[in-house]
Amino acid sequence: MVFVRTTPPRPVQVTAVFPELAPLARPAIRLHPRPGSPSVRDSSVGGPLLWPAGEPWPHCEDVHLHVDTGFRESLTEVRLQRRLQSGWRPGDRPPAYTAEEAALKERAAAQLAERLDAGPPWPAECPVPLLPVAQLFLRDIPLLRPPGQADLLQVLWCPYEHEPDCKPATAVFWRSAAEVGDILAIPPEPYEADYPGYVPEPCVLAPETITEYPNSLDLSPELQRMLEDWNRWQAAGACVDSSYAQYPREFYSLHLGNAPGWKVGGWPPWGRTDPYPRHCAACGEQMVPLLTIASREWDGGEGRSWAPQEEQATALDGSRGRGQYPSQPTRVEVGSTDNMQIYVCPTAPEHPHTDLIQ
């Protein structure tokens, strides 16, 4: 890891105001992915995987029909467009493709036309090679609890939406890095993605350990009522803007509960649904959050308080200089700027995982 990102101190020490929340503290590691050039030996988002040459690359075996959503693009087009955007600033003359890039784009367009000429229902390639989403080494992310001698987590997904929840299908692999000999040099890739947001931008990481408290929806009715007691906040001397007097629980949710962004461990970011336990299909144990795949590292408005100290100026400015997206470095977008959470069995992480959009 070659750079550091630091979560600003929270505006209020929550356990000083509500000591009842102290037993609910959980460790989490914010990954702070930022665009870069990770290698197969690095922890990364969207980077190359330390994948054995002799092990088949995972594919999605579902049937994928080509439905013209108006968003589907080849991976070549997605990457070329991002390359142009990265060098463009509003007011500048739009950059042009290089001759090599123009040839790639023309080739991709010709391949798409050939597929469409086959006539409906335009079946997508099947099985579909999965795309790398995250690679995490235990040395960088000590909160991981791998099975056996494993020290490496690899997460991939199929960049097509799958019923019934309209989200990419995910795959989780645990392995021992030391046991990987020859490395697969050129993994297969899917021809296209349902949305550009299903193609992660290669990012290096700056892991940071923090302490999290539950989303307010995860609290008991008694604790929720406690957070809504403005007199309790005032009696503790908490410096909370009086604009929150009517809804002090909102202040907790925005600034003090679970952190936004890509992270390992911690508490779930509920919102699309109320909390409900997820149980391991193999043993019935209640599953725990492993990885949060986030559409945003922080939200606009007051949610910018979670932006790292090193990037507060950029976050507060809210502009998009030279095609950069400060709060969306991975360019991943799931749901309606939601989060996807990977859950695993706490007693046997090798049991089948599950995922959820929130």
TrEMBL record:
Which InterPro entries does this chain map to? YwqG-like_sf
Cross-referenced SUPFAM superfamilies: Hypothetical protein YwqG (SSF103032)
Query: Which segments show compositional bias classed as Polar residues?
Result: 325-337
* Keywords annotated in UniProt: Plasmid
Region annotation Disordered: where it falls in the sequence: 299-337
- Listed name of the protein: DUF1963 domain-containing protein
Q: What is the lineage of its organism?
A: Bacteria, Bacillati, Actinomycetota, Actinomycetes, Kitasatosporales
